What does this fold into?
Amino acid sequence: MLNSGQNFDLSNSPRHRQMSTKGARAILHLDLDAFYASVEQLDAPALHGRPVVVAGPSSRSVVCAASYEARKFGVRSAMPTVRAKKLCPGGVFVTPRFPRYEEISSRVFEIYRRFTPLVEPLSLDEAFLDVTTSESLHGPGRVIAAAVKRAVKEELGLTVSAGIADVKLAAKIASDLGKPDGLVEVPPGTTRAFLEPLPVSRLWGVGRVTEKALARLGIHRLGQLADAPEALLAGALGRGHARDLRTLARGEDPREVVADEEAKSVGAEETFEEDLVGREALLPHLLGQAERVARRLREVGKKGRTVTLKVKYADFELVTRRCTLPSATDDGHVLFQAARAQLERADLCRPVRLTGVSASGFQAGRAEQLELFEPSPDGLTAATS
Amino acid sequence: MELKIGVQELARALARSQGIVEKKSTMPILSHVLLEATKTEGLHVSATDLDISVSSDHACEVLKEGKVAIPAKQLYEIVKALPEKDAVLKRASNNYLELKSGAAEFRIVGLPADDFPALPRFDKIQLVSVDPKWLLEMIDLTSFAVSSDETRYNLNGVFFEPSVGSLRTVATDGHRLSLAERSLEGDFQVKKGVILPRKGLGEMKKLLLEAAEGETRLGFAENSAVLQRPRVRLVMRLIDGVFPDYRQVIPRAGEKKFTVGRERLLETLRRVSLLSTDKAHAVKLELEPGTLRVLSHNPDLGEAKEEVPVQYQGEPLKIGFNARYVMDVLIALAALEPVAAQDVLLELADDLSPGVIKPGGESATIFTAVVMPMRI
It folds into this structure.
C-alpha cells in the first residue's frame, strides 16, 4: 500500500474537491503480465523460465510481447524483431496466435465478470472493473483484486497486476507500478498525494511533445502540474488541454467504467479437467453454460436469436453448430434445449475437451420499428409494401 | 422616435417576436426587435432569426418618427409588467429607449436600427386566400409526423403541395406519414410543392390562433413562404430539399378494414401502453371478428390487455405498432373541422405492411395517416 499514512486537508479548496472516503468508487485496473508471452509459456511448459518473444515471422515485423525473462535483455513491445534478436540471441521467438489469446482473454474476462458486470475491456489483456457495488458481496476492492488474481492464477495459470483506486487514472498507474504480479492500492482520498511525485509522462494525453512543453515551464512531476496556474499551462498547451491535464493531475477523473455492451455475442465455455465422452457426460456442462449465458444476457438486457454450440475434441479439432430460434431469448432453458439439439449434430463418440454455448443475433430493443421508405443511395424512394 | 401606444397593443406585438428572436448570442442584433415609427403607418415591429421573420403594424400616436432596435425579451417582460394602460416610448441618444408608463420609468440599452438585417420583401408574390381554420387544421393534422432527426433535413418540415383546386399538406418521419387535403380556390403559381420548417409552422400556428376571423393569405416564393394576416406578416425560409415521393407509400385499401370509436381506441392505447417498453411503446393488436384486442408486454414490468368492440368480420390478424404513432393520429383527428371525428377507419393488410387510419364518414377524403408496424 502506498502513501496510506498521509493526511490531507480536504477542505483546502472547494474547487478541487477530493473524493471523500465515504461513497468513493472502487475501480480496479487489471493487466495481464506479458500476456501473449505468458500464454505461449503456458501452452508449452518447456518455454517456462526462458526468454520468450512473440513477434511476427517476417523480417519487417515488430515485437508484440516479451516475457519478463526477455525484457531483462532489453526487449520491448513494438521493437523491430530484428533488433530484439540482436539484443536477445538466445530468445525463443514465437509467431503470435491471436485466436488462442482471444480465447484465453475471454476466459479471463469471464472470471472478472464473476465479481461485477461492469467490466470495460481496453484490449485483450487489460480491463477496468467498477467493483463499488460488489463490496457488500465480495468485500473491499483490495480483497476483490486479490481474489481475481488468485482465480486467474489457479484456473488459467496467468498472473495479473492489479491497481485499485477511486479513479481510473490512478488505478491504471497503480497496476503498472506493481508489475509483474502486483497489487497496488491507492486508498480513497490519497489519490492526489499518490500522483504528486510521478513524472508527468504517466498521464494519459502526455506524449513527448506535451512533456517537452511542460519541461520548458519547469514542470516535471504531476504535483507541479496540479499546482501550476491554469493561465501558464494554457499558454503552452491550449486552454482545453491544459484544464484537462491539470484536473487529471489533481486526481480528479470522473470517467465511468463502461461495460462493453457492444458485444456481438455472449458466450460461456469450459475446458474440462479431463476429456469427456458421450451425451450424458456433456449435457450437465451444457446446462451450466446455457444458464450462464442466459444470466449474462439478462444482465446486459439483451436477447439472442442465434445459439451456437462449440465443441473441441481431444485432438483440438474445433466444430461449431448453430441454429436460429423463432424468437430472441434470454431464457437458460431455451438456450439449453437449442444447445442440446445441436449436440446431436456433433460426433458423440469422440472424446471432448471443451464445450461452449453462445447466443448472438441480438435484436435492437424488444420490437423493431419497420421503415416506411426503403433507404436507397439517393435518399428515400421505394416503399416497403 | 417618440410615440404613445396602448400597453396591450405593444405587448401583442412583442409576444409575436418571442418565439423567433435568437436566444444564442452569436449575433446580438437578432435578439432585438426593430421598432419603427412613421406618422402614416404608426408603429412597425419586426423580429427575425434570418430564417423566419415577423413584422406587424400597430396603431399609435406618433409624436416623432424614428427607429431603434431593443432587446426583445427584456422589453416584452417590462411591457407585460407596466402599471398603466398606455406607455410613451422615446428614443434617447446612444440608442437608449426611454419608456414611461404612469410613475414607472425605464431606460433600456438598444442597438442602432441600421444594424438590423433587412427583411425580405415579396411584392410580386402570389398570395392566395385561405380559411385560417382550415390552414390551422391542416398543420395540426400533419405536423406531429415531422421528423426531428436533423440528418433527414428534408423531413424536418411539412410538405405543402398545391394543385388545381386543392392544397395538400404531408409530413413523415420515415416510420409514419400523415396527409391532409382541402379544396382551395386560387393559384399559388408554383410548379412543385414546398417544405415549410417546423419552427416556422409553430409561428404560423400562433398567428392563426390569434384570431379565428380575418383575411388570411398564403403564398410561396422560390425559397420562402409568406403568411399575411391583418396588419401582420410572417415570412419563413423553406427547407431546401426534396420531399420523398410519398404517394408510393400510401397503400391501396387493405383487405382488413374496421371502424372503431376514436376516443375509445385512444384511451385503450393510453392505458395498455403504460406497460410497454419506454422507448418503443410497442403494443400488439389482435384483430378478430367483432373484437380488437390491444396487448402490451414488458418483461420488467408485466403485461396489459384490453378488448375493444369493432365492426369487423374478416380474417384474424396480429400486428405490432408503436402506440405513440397511432395515438398521435387519434389525437390529431380531434382537430378535424367542423366536428372531431367520432369514428376512425383502420385498414390493414398483413403484419409487416403499413396500416392506414382515416376519419370515418364523409371526412375520409380529408385525412390519411400511414403507420408502419413493428416486428414484435
